[in-house]
Amino acid sequence: MREWLVSISFVVAAIVPALSSAAEPLGCSEPIPELFRRVSPSVVFISAVAINPFKLTDPVGTVAGSGVIISADGLVLTTSHLVFGRRAITVALDDGRVSQARLLGADPILDLAILRISVPPEGLPKATLGDSDSIRVGEEVVAIGNPFGLEQTLTRGVVSGVNRVLPETRMSETLPLIQTDAAINPGSSGGPLLNRCGEVIGIATSVLIDAQDIGFAVPINVARQVLPQLAEQGRVVRPWLGVGGKNIGRELRTILRVPLVNGFLVETIEPGSPAERAGLQEGDLPITIGDEQFLLGGDIITTANGQPVDQPEKFAKFVRSLKVGDTVRLTLYRDGETRQVELRLPERPILPGDLPSDGRRLISPPLGHRVGRRLHY
Question: In which residue ranges of the chain is CATH 2.40.10.10 found?
Answer without folding.
Answer: 32-36+127-233, 39-116
